[in-house]
């Protein structure tokens, strides 16, 4: 799964997504970060909210962390999506993993898993919190959502390709996923198996 670049032609991915109209003006709006995060659930207000959050940079992390517990699933989803491109402290990572396991909405769970585990999305040189990424991916394979399971299989593929993982859990999970009834999961798992050390 391709990760969006932090900047493209000097513009964040969310600016590209919502369009240029009004972006230059709304960056000057005096909005509280908490209010901006809450507005992520409103599709019409989202561009101005994103501009405020973008301008805040890493200082937006506490507000986005609070957004992971918001009552509107779109706010939780966008909070996780924005955290995907920011360095994660231990508290934020722990909450992302909790949301990934327990949120009621499949899109939120899928994005939380991705935000917690995708090092490629994080700013260069930001470092990473140590945690059991393989355990996270194995748990995601048991999720009731096909979207989440497909992302987990992609994560295992990256583990196999980038890390040539010798973790027995990776091997077992990929072996099981290769027989999954979903053809996308099975195809990704079979591809991953080619990269494992000693795989036939």
- Our count of domains comes out at 2
Could you tell me the mean pLDDT?
82
Structural class: mainly alpha
What is the number of E strands? 2
The main sheet orders its strands as 1-2
Strand content bin: under 5%
Query: How many H/I helices?
Result: 12
Radius of gyration using CA atoms only: 18 Å
Helical residue percent band: 55-70%
Could you give a short account of the major beta sheet? 2 strands, antiparallel
- In whole angstroms, how far apart are the ends? 25 Å
Note the run of SSEs as H and E: EEHHHHHHHHHHHH
Uncertain runs are 1-30
- Shape label: elongated
Overview of this protein structure:
The structure is a single chain. This protein is mainly alpha-helical and 200 residues long. The chain has two domains: 123 residues, no CATH class; 69 residues, Leucine-rich Repeat Variant. It is built from twelve helices and two strands. Strands 1-2 form a two-stranded antiparallel ribbon. Helix 5 runs antiparallel to helix 6 and helix 9 runs antiparallel to helix 10. The radius of gyration is 18 Å and the shape is elongated.
Keywords:
single chain; 200 residues; mainly alpha; Leucine-rich Repeat Variant; 2 domains; two-stranded antiparallel ribbon; 12 helices; 2 strands; 58% helix; disordered N terminus
